[in-house]
Specification:
The complex is a heterotrimer of chains A (252), B (282) and C (326).
Chain A: E1 2-13, E2 16-27, E3 31-35, H1 42-49, E4 56-59, H2 66-72, E5 73-76, H3 88-93, H4 108-120, H5 136-149, E6 154-158, H6 166-181, E7 185-189, H7 193-199, E8 202-207, E9 210-215, H8 217-220, H9 223-230, E10 232-239, E11 242-250
Parallel strand pairs in A: 3-7, 3-8, 5-6, 6-7
Antiparallel strand pairs in A: 1-2, 1-4, 8-9, 10-11
Chain B: H1 2-25, E1 32-34, H2 37-46, E2 52-56, H3 68-71, E3 76-77, H4 81-86, E4 91-95, H5 100-108, E5 112-116, H6 124-136, H7 139-156, E6 165-169, E7 174-175, H8 181-188, E8 192-193, H9 194-197, E9 204-205, H10 208-214, E10 218-221, H11 238-242, E11 247-248, H12 255-258, H13 264-281
Parallel strand pairs in B: 1-2, 1-4, 2-3, 4-5, 6-8, 6-10, 10-11
Antiparallel strand pairs in B: 7-9
Chain C: H1 2-19, H2 28-36, H3 42-76, H4 88-101, H5 104-107, H6 111-131, H7 137-161, H8 167-176, H9 184-202, H10 205-211, H11 215-220, H12 225-247, H13 253-261, H14 269-294, H15 302-320, H16 322-325
Helix pairs in contact in C: 1-3, 1-14, 2-3, 3-9, 3-12, 3-13, 3-14, 4-6, 4-7, 4-12, 6-7, 6-12, 7-8, 9-12, 10-14, 13-14
Classes of the chains: A alpha/beta (252), B alpha/beta (282), C mainly alpha (326).
Amino acid sequence: MSLMTLHNLTVRRGARAVVADVSLRVEAGECVGLIGPNGAGKTSLLRAALGLLPAEGEASLAALPDAERARAAAWMPQSREIGWPVSVETLVALGRIPYLPRGARLRPEDRAAIDAAIARMELGPYRDRPATQLSGGEQARVLIARALAQDTPLLLADEPTAGLDPSHRISTMQVFAALAAEGRAVLVSLHDLGLAARHCTRLVLLKAGRLIADGPPAQVLTPGNVGAVFGITAYQAETPQGHVFQPMELAR
Amino acid sequence: MRASVRRSRLISLAAALVLTGAVADAGPPAQVVSINLCTDQLALLLAAPGQLVSVSKLAHDPSSSAMATVAQVYPANDSRAEEVYLLAPDLVLAGTFTDPATLQMLRDLGVAVEVFAPALSLAEIPERLAQMGRALGREAEAQAQIDAFEAELTRLDDAGPGRPRAALYYVNSYTSGHRTLAGDILRAAGFDNVADEAGLADGGTLALEQLVMLAPEVIVRGRDYPGQSRAEDNLRHPALGALQGSTVTAALTDRSWICGAPHVLDAVREMRDLRLSLEAGK
Amino acid sequence: MRLASALLALCAALFLGSLLSGPASAPAGASLMALVRDDGTPLSVVMREIRLPRALLAVMVGASLGLSGAALQGYLRNPLAEPGLIGISGAAALGAVLAIQTGLSLAFPLALPLSALGMALLAVLLILALAGPRGASITLILAGIAISALAGALTSLVLNLSPNPFATADIVFWMMGSLADRSFAHVWLALPFIALGWLLLARLGRGLDALTLGEDAAQSMGLRLPRLRLTLVVGTAACVGAATAVAGAIGFVGLVVPHLLRPWVGARPSALLWASALGGAAMVLAADIAVREALPGRDLKLGVLMALVGAPLFLHLIYKTRKEMA
């Protein structure tokens, strides 16, 4: 089942197209990694896909009414903004806003979704702490939990692993992979190509706003693509745990 | 430097002495300028034809001046030393509240200045008339005005023992007690003043609440000034209208209440008429 | 809920206290009887025509300022946003002064709150345009200083040009605010606009909660940001405009009250809205009692007391946020 379709999506900033003619489908069960160097248009693509940025072409999510879209896809922006010292639980509960009738209190199903998200991100011990007092990595996990509480078929996340320690990077990607395995889908932009290669079912490679490659990690991360797009060489291997990708040197 | 300053000071002082001496020798002043609203009116009443050459600007303003019509034929001055000096007066008439710097400047320039204190009671009005008569060399005219004033005041004094209680109520909740001209007008018209009950013999702020609690039979509202201000809202407060048994007058205490001149008789007459109509209504 | 009952009880107690303070001293029981029963006595006039509208206005003005402070802070995610500090009250005062001095309000009484509302609207739009989406403290404060200074100067100019000799004395009232000798006429004049403002601002809770996560995340949760912005702008202008038109510019209420109450509502912007409305009402009621009891007969302005409490707190907040501003 397709959870998101982009057709010839183009985002212009002034005369320049920061996203150019990108067509993409995300199916249920996929964990799609969006990769590309700085300025490739990853964030613009994700925001335009949600209708947060004006764009040409078709985006299935952007076409939905606001309330419906909020139940179809959750979004975790790169800027990890927490405006007020609310408790972790309160912050995670914000993810239920799309489901709550105006002025209603949290219902049992909302509580269940909040508890599940907190448990999934292993935030139980932090539940009543002010979110602003946590470390950067802990805040990132709280914000992922918030997006999980939104309980949508599709999750879009922009650099969710930036600033996390190795164990939390891995556990975060495992959460995304598990969501995909449950029949949901995740579209996540990543700079850590090793993480992308290891945990994503599929990678989408962008360069200067254009889609360069789309497919399983081994097919996208060819030495040619890696050299042409990132300007590096890498060591790659197929292991029983999955594809291994280790950047080595700058390509000459 | 210093010596020369002192010398010029001495010269101007000497000139001043000579000039005033000359005026005294020559009899009544020929060129008189008034720079105060109240001296304007006294002078307009008493001056010989041609003697008064200029009055203050306020004298032309009908909302402040009881003699605005008469005053129109006299050029107005702005009450500042520069303009007044250029009129070359023999005598300047001023009030005690006139800017002392202006008066000192005029004296330094050798102009004679006669200062009049504001009248705080009706009894002081004959004194002011007499002072103006002396200053202008018009003692006989002054005596005639004094006699007429006292006769009319006596005629108006017909209050019985049952004096109604009244309050004078101005902008910013200010009131006048019995030791003021307005308070004395009220007394002469046959009213008791509730400001005295509130301990404000000289006047002061009487909160709206206190005024309502005193519940005077008559609330004499202060004059209406041109333009608008929030400070005047108290005069239109609905609490005044809600007070049963109290009559709130139209905007009074206008031009005939301000100056210690015979025109206060208009104010006394107006207030006495009000008292008589109240007594007739009972 | 415990906080709500505590704040309501505090407001009720202070409302009673406000009804019982004033220069006309009378026993409390007799005063309250005179309030309930219109028996035509002077005490009844004092209670019904002077004290009651004054206490009602304290509630209306205080709740409006507290509520708009909390709403502005929630939208800008900045605890320094306050209608007085960022020039909205000053602009509203200018609007009110213009309506009075042109004689417009004499011919058409609603011109007073409408004109104040219009100028407040201009100021909010200007502030939001200058401060940008995430109201950085430095721009917010600088823009506020500029707007306050301009509005204050124009207010003084208009009053200085007035032919009325008392207009210049009014400057203090418009800059500092007072509820002395207000009447039911002022209550009825301000009430429709203040009620409209409350209704609009009270609807913002959910959106402001969502904005805790930033504009992008909030929009992805279905928040319509342009509509929220419009509601905030009109609601704030209506509340602050009408409150200022009848009571002058009273500063710091919208700063102090949300700051004190934020820890009590778990920092949730939606809960802070109603809490700040109640807290604002309590604060202005308390200040209005204090100005009457501390210096009776002096007509001490409310803004003086507010600044004495609020300015040190403002400095403290600037100190706390100085890292962000550097």
